[in-house]
Each structure stands twice: as structure tokens, then as C-alpha cells.
Amino acid sequence: MKRLFLLLSLVTFTIFVCGLSHAAPRRNPLRIATMNMPKIYRKLPAVQKATLYLKSRKEDFQKDLDRGTKDLYAKMKDIKEARGKVPADELKKKEQEWRRLKFDLDLKFQKMKEKLQKLEKHEFEVLKRKIDDAIQRVVRTKRLDLVLEKQWLYYGDTIDITDDVLSLLLKETGAN
User: What predicted TM-score, i.e. pTM, was given to this entire model?
Assistant: First the structure.
């Protein structure tokens, strides 16, 4: 009986040891990195260029709208001065013209607003794709498992890849 118990114990121990030696190798801990996107947006000349371009377009649209508003006010002043001095049918025509001008200006404003939104979306989608591509290349180079936005990480050891991504983007655009 003792022999049987000893033999079973030896076989169990051997199986256990052999099982441990053939177990899957232990995986290294996750390699986590952080990114400071606001810093990228602040320091990347392409973002500043796109922002200035959009600002310029907004100013152009605003000047155009200001001219239309000025014409609208001039037409309103003309109607007020004409009251009691011109026949009713002529006054009615002026008021209709004013309503048409106001409608056209409102329509123009709406179209300009939509155009600016599309332009802004396009400009920043292009930039976002370039930034995402640079992040992917840094991730592959450094063999990272996870990248988090720096502001969302409260605690933990991570690798900050912000400067690596920024330098890669600056190198690609030729701005240093």
C-alpha cells in the first residue's frame, strides 16, 4: 500500500512538473503609452496653417454678409422715408424687394455656414489621418500594446510618445 501511494505520488508530481514546463510562456506585461493630443495640435504647423486658413475664409464670408446687411438696412431706410410720400403700390413693391433681399441674405448665410462647416471638417479630418498614421508608426516601432490620451490616465507607468509623434510629423512636413 505504501508502495502504491508512493508510486502514485511520484507519477502525479512528474505529470505536474512536466505540465508546468510545457505551459504557455508567460507574456510580458502590457506596454502602455500616452499621447498629449493638445500639445500635438498646439505645436504642429499644419494645424496652425489650417486654423488661419479657416479664419481667413470666415472673415471673407463675414465681409460678404456685412455688405448684404448694409444693403438690407439701406433698403429699410428707403422704405421708412418713402412712407406717406409714394403711392401705396410702389411702397408695397419696395417692401417686397426688402423681404426678397432678407430671404436671400438668410439663405446666403445658411449656405456659407454649411460651407465653412464642411471646409473645417475636411481640413481637420486630413490632419487627424496624418496624426493617426504617425501614431501607428510609432506604436509599431516601439512595439506598444495600448495608447491612451494622457489626460485620461490618472496613475501608472507609461511611455509618453507625444514628442516621438510630433517629431515624425514635423520631419514629414519639413518643419523643424
Answer: 0.64
